[in-house]
Amino acid sequence: MKFAVFLFLCSFVGLSLAESDFPSNYHRQDEWLHFLDIVNSMTPKFDDDIHDVAEDENPLLCRINYVSEFPFTCPPMESTEIPTSVHKLTPADISVIGALGDSLTAAFGMESCTLVNLVREYRGLSWSVGGDEDINTVLTVANLIKFYNPDLKGYSRGTGGPNSPAARFNVAVSGARAEHMPEQARELVERILADPEVDNENDWKVVTLFIGGNDLCQYCFNENKYSTEQYVEYIRQALDIMHENLPRTFVNVLGILLIPELGYYSTPKCDVIHIGACGCAMFLQGDLNEHIWDLTRAYQRQTEALIMSGRYDTRDDFTVVYQPFLEETHMPFLDNGEVDGSYFAPDCFHLVPVATLWEPKISGITCCNQLDKRPNHGTQKEALIVPP
C-alpha cells in the first residue's frame, strides 16, 4: 500500500498534558483513558513477543533512514514577491504552520517499539506539522516548507503534550473528537496572536485539520452526538473561528480515515485493543457494519460539501481545501494475505513513520492516489515529483 503523506503543496504547487485551561473536558467520558488502560494492562503479556526488538534489529518499527531511501532532490525556490492572494502561494511564501486534530496529528506512539513506551506523543514527527531535524531525515509537511523557507515558525519538536513548549502551534490532543475542534481553533488563534515572532496580518499561514476517528468509534454509544450533522457542525465552527481571526491562511481539511478497515488487522493483541477502543466501528456485522461504512462516507461527503459551499471563499487571503486522499487509503497487505503490521505502532491502531511517509509527492495537480500496494520499505528509491 502506498500510504502517502498528505502534502498541502499538492493544492497550490505519553499523553503528557500540562496543567492548563487547554484542553478542557476532553475525557469526561474516559474513552481515551479506557484505551490507555487497555494498553497498559496488556503490556506485560504481549511486549515480550510482539515488537520487542532493538532499533538496530528492525528499524522499520522504530526509525527509518530516510536520507538514502526517500531522497529529496527538488531545487530550492525563492519567493520573489509575497503574494496577496492565497491562490498564488508557493512553499517559500509560508511563514507559519499549525495543526488541529487528535492522536494522529499528535503523533501518538509514532516511534514506539513496544507497548511500554507507546504512551508518548512524538510531535516532532507529526506528518503535518512536525519539525524535527530536516527534510533529509524526517519527511513532514513542515520540513518540506522549511526547505523552502528556513524561517518557518510554529512547527512542533520532540515529544510532549499539547501544552509542552515544543508543541508550538500543534494544538492536537490525543483522544479529541470533532466537538473539540472549536476549542482547538481558539487555542491556535491565541497562540498565534501571542507569539511576538508572528505577524498575524502579514504572515502567510498553513493550518491542517484532521479529525473524526474517535467520533466514529463512539457512534454506537450516542448516535445523536456523533451524527454526521453534529460532526460537520463542529468543523464548521472551527473553520469559522479561523476564517474570522486568521488572515492570510490556507486551511487543509482531511477526510476521515476508513476506520472500519482497521478490524482487518487481527491478532490476539490487536483484537483485544480494537474491541475495547473501537469495537463500535470495527466489529459490527451485517446491517450494522454497513451503517458504519455509510456513516464514514457521510462524514467525508458532508465535510467536503461544507468546504465546497463557498462559505470560506469570501476574501482573497483565506481558503479552505478538502483533501480526499484518505477515502481510498486501504489497509496494507502482505503477499500472504496478512495485514502488514510494520505500518502500525504496537497498539495496532496508530501509525509509525513508514505509514505516513510512503511515496510522498509534491504536485501541482493532485496527491490523490489509491493506496493499495505494499511498499518496498526502502529497498527501492522513489523520486519525488516536483512542481513544474
Automatic annotation (TrEMBL):
Keywords, sorted A to Z: Cell membrane, Glycoprotein, Hydrolase, Lipid metabolism, Membrane, Repeat, Signal, Transmembrane, Transmembrane helix
Predominant location category: membrane
SUPFAM superfamilies named among the record's database cross-references: SGNH hydrolase
GO MF annotation list: phosphatidylcholine lysophospholipase activity; phospholipase A2 activity; retinyl-palmitate esterase activity; triacylglycerol lipase activity
Coiled-coil residues: none
Secreted keyword on record: no
Pfam families: Lipase_GDSL (PF00657)
CDD domains noted in UniProt: Phospholipase_B_like
InterPro entries referenced in this protein's UniProt entry, alphabetically: GDSL, Phospholipase_B, PLB1, SGNH_hydro_sf
Membrane topology, from the record: Single-pass type I membrane protein
Family the UniProt entry places it in: Belongs to the 'GDSL' lipolytic enzyme family. Phospholipase B1 subfamily.
PANTHER family assigned to the protein according to its UniProt record, in alphabetical order: GH22081P-RELATED (PTHR21325:SF31), PHOSPHOLIPASE B, PLB1 (PTHR21325)
Role played: Calcium-independent membrane-associated phospholipase that catalyzes complete diacylation of phospholipids by hydrolyzing both sn-1 and sn-2 fatty acyl chains attached to the glycerol backbone (phospholipase B activity). Has dual phospholipase and lysophospholipase activities toward diacylphospholipids. Preferentially cleaves sn-2 ester bonds over sn-1 bonds. Acts as a lipase toward glycerolipid substrates. Hydrolyzes fatty acyl chains of diacylglycerols with preference for the sn-2 position and of triacylglycerols with not positional selectivity.
Protein name: Phospholipase B1, membrane-associated
Species classification: Eukaryota, Metazoa, Echinodermata, Eleutherozoa, Echinozoa
